[in-house]
Amino acid sequence: GNSVTQMEGPVTLSEEAFLTINCTYTATGYPSLFWYVQYPGEGLQLLLKATKADDKGSNKGFEATYRKETTSFHLEKGSVQVSDSAVYFCALSDRGTNAGKSTFGDGTTLTVKP
Amino acid sequence: SAVISQKPSRDICQRGTSLTIQCQVDSQVTMMFWYRQQPGQSLTLIATANQGSEATYESGFVIDKFPISRPNLTFSTLTVSNMSPEDSSIYLCSVSDRAGNTIYFGEGSWLTVV
C-alpha cells in the first residue's frame, strides 16, 4: 500500500529562519503530491501540489519539488514568519482506478518564535 | 472545480447515540472519500463510497460502526454509530477530479462526544 513519511516534529524556528520539512513517500503507482497546512483550531487548507516528476509547487513563499528518483517532496521556505506556525501535512493521492484516494503523513508542527 | 458542503459543521453528541454526517457535492463524482482526524492526529481514510455499491472500508473501520450511504453521484452520508468519547474527531468528505490531480475537501464535521 501507499505510505507517506514526514520528518518528526515539532520544529521550532526563529523568525526569518530557513525551513525544510522532509517528506518521502511509497506508492504503487504515480501519485500526485500535496502539502496541506492546518492552523490551530481550523480546517485543512491546501498549501501547494505537484502532479508530475520535477514539477515544483509553490505558494505563499513555500516550495516543494516532486522528486520521483528519490520519492520525495520536501517543503521549503526561505524566511518563515510567526504566522506560519501551524501543522503541515504531506500527502499523496492515487491516480487511475482509485483517483483521489489520499494518504497522509503524520504531520509536522511548526512553531516560529519572534 | 468542486464545492463540497458538509453538515453538521459542529455538534456535541451524547455517548451511545449515533450521528449522520451529510456530504453534498456540486458536481457528479465517481468516488467520495471519508476521513477522520482525531485530536492532534493526521487524517485517516475511513472508507471509499461508490454510487451503486457498498463502501470499501479501510483496515480498522467496520460498516457496523461507520455505515455509509451513496444514493447518487453528488451525495453521501457517514453515520458514526454508538458513539464514545474516542469518536470525538473531525470527519471530512473528499472528492477529486477524474485524474486525481486536484483534491477537494469539505470543511469538516467537528464532533465532540460527551
What summary fits the major beta sheet of chain A? 6 strands, mixed
Class from helix and strand fractions of chain A: mainly beta
Helix and strand composition category of chain B: mainly beta
Alpha-carbon distance between the termini of chain A?
A: 41 Å
How do the helices and strands line up, and which of them pair or pack?
The complex is a heterodimer of chains A (114) and B (114).
Chain A: E1 3-6, E2 11-14, E3 19-21, E4 23-26, E5 32-38, E6 44-50, E7 56-59, E8 62-65, E9 75-77, E10 86-93, E11 102-104, E12 108-113
Parallel strand pairs in A: 2-12
Antiparallel strand pairs in A: 1-4, 3-9, 5-6, 5-10, 7-8, 8-9, 10-11, 10-12
Chain B: E1 4-7, E2 10-13, E3 19-25, E4 31-37, E5 43-50, E6 56-57, E7 68-72, E8 75-80, E9 89-96, E10 103-105, E11 109-113
Parallel strand pairs in B: 2-11
Antiparallel strand pairs in B: 1-3, 3-8, 4-5, 4-9, 5-6, 7-8, 9-10, 9-11
Structure description:
The complex is a heterodimer of chains A (114) and B (114). With 114 residues, chain A is mainly β. Chain A is built from no helices and 12 strands. Chain A has strands spanning 3-6, 11-14, 19-21, 23-26, 32-38, 44-50, 56-59, 62-65, 75-77, 86-93, 102-104, 108-113. In chain A, strands 2, 5, 6, 10, 11 and 12 form a 6-stranded mixed beta sheet that branches. A 4-stranded antiparallel beta sheet of chain A has the order 3-9-8-7, with no helix packed on it. In chain A, strands 1-4 form a two-stranded antiparallel ribbon. In chain A, strand 7 (56-59) and strand 8 (62-65) form a beta hairpin. The N and C termini of chain A lie far apart (41 Å). By secondary structure, chain B is an all-beta fold. Chain B is 0% helix and 52% strand. Chain B has strands at residues 4-7, 10-13, 19-25, 31-37, 43-50, 56-57, 68-72, 75-80, 89-96, 103-105, 109-113. In chain B, the strands form 2 sheets. In chain B, strands 2, 4, 5, 6, 9, 10 and 11 form a 7-stranded mixed beta sheet that branches. Chain B has a 4-stranded antiparallel beta sheet with strand order 1-3-8-7, with no helix packed on it. In chain B, a hairpin with a 5-residue loop joins strand 4 and strand 5. The chains are: A mainly beta (114), B mainly beta (114). Chains A and B meet through strand 6, strand 10 and strand 11 of A and strand 4, strand 5 and strand 9 of B.
